[in-house]
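Apologies for my clumsy wording, but could you write out the amino acids of a protein and the tokens describing how it folds?
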Amino acid sequence: MLVYGDVERIEDAAAIRASIAGMMTACAGMQPGRRRHETLVRAFILTGELVQGLADREFGIKGADDVSEIQDAGAELLLGQARAIMQSWRNGFAGELPLPEDWPARLEYLDSIEPLRTKRAEGYAFYALYPESYMEAASLSKLTSRTVVIGIRSIGTGLAALVSAALGVGSACSLRPTGHPFERRVHVTPALSRRILADPEADFAIVDEGPGLSGSSFGSVADWLQARGVAPDRLHFFPSHAGDPGPRASETHRLRWKERPRHVVGFDDLVLKAWDKKHRLQTWAADLVGVAKPSWRDLSGGAWRAVQHGDPSLWPPSDTQMEKRKFLMEAEGRAWHAKFAGLCGSDTDKARRGSLLSEAGFVPKIAGTCYGFIVEEWVPGASPDRTGMDRRRLVEHLGRYLGFRARHLPAPGGGASIDDLCHMAVFNIGEAAGSETAEEVRRLIGSPGRFRGRLHRVDTDNRLHPWEWLMTADGRLMKTDALDHNAAHDLVGCQDIAWDVAGACVEFDLSIEERNRVAELVAREADCDLREDVLAVFEACYLGFQIGLWSQARARAGGQEAARIESHIKRCLGRLRRPARNDIP
């Protein structure tokens, strides 16, 4: 199934350097505290992306990783930033910040005339991977300063610097595994090979997030080292989780993974159970809203349904392994929802978006952000599909909400092209329903090129499921989880508002008349093309994506969860064969 997509950006190196310089300068002038630490981490993450882009550009020219003055300068800058992060964290965000004195010169050296292709670090953006966890894992590893640290690009570029800082070693190098996702290989020049293997008594720390389905990125670096005489007992892995590689892992890689040490400090131990309360998410969130000693409940992994829906027979489906971390905080008769929204500033960007939607009455009030989390008012209520609410009122609200987004929220980023969406839809539907149904969808779509001049990207919601809406006790209809689905780890991204109109049609089983009313209300607010042919194609694409998304979730689920997901997939397949109804309920 085609669902996920790596988020790449084409950027100007000078613009990235200017952003980093602004953050580093701000850090030097800020008062000690968590906000200063957050700014430093943002600069560190952005530096890692810049160094990754430069390294990959050189790799593309030479076809292999090589000794490089630019990469050495980048690695030294990352190491200096990592040391500052380590001291700030261990001092509870207090005290002087030991920024490297030569950071402006090293940053200025990281230049490129040509635009760079950079990758967003998925762990920081989606999976609550905190850089400090690698620092703490290295501190507990008992490795010595005779360790060679190798980061796997992309995110390993920066993570390796944190391991190096904690071990007290010099700057790390990074390698780019290439090839089939399940059979990665590394390509290293003799000069870089000699540098990596210079100390015959060294241990090796291999650093990356993951492992994923195959663990072949970790495995490829270990394969390369062992092929050059490094004993297996000198290999150490620094992953983002303590689990095993997925089902696509080779037997060799799986066996090595079980035998060699894996040094991990997870999110819970780092920021939920930390012995220093200054490091706890509970403390950050409580300080933000101004309460003391709040109760705390983990809503991750689908647990939110027990609070929102009660009876498990009423629970909607959930891809529990892929949900972002979220918590319910209660104190002094009030309640708040804290949800991971991403590091490197994406949390504050989404909070600004949420404040705009909240002022218009569409989403809960935003209290603010605290180091990667958005904290918002917790709104109890029931999903509209269980309230028996008036359909006309629902349709009017959907139209106003989508119209507001189309008019007031410009696209914060890109997304899949109409050609890619249509290809995804035909492929996923073919996998789920067979070639005959896929061919019908292909004929419905026709030539996607005819839509290009008629589409305009906006900040779409991307998830219009009934369980993401709440009818409150005072009769308000509120959209939950409205801030970041178009920046998720999938291929959709920001789209024309037709994507959301089609989504509303599918999720609320709108009749043609209801759909036309939603389209009319949206068109009053924004310049958009919501004619029949556009909506028909976007509905097919929306269904194709949902079928693919939930099919992958079903493969990870079991028991009742698998049954809920299967029921939802069948509903989507049924809608595919039966477009918008002509009757009005």
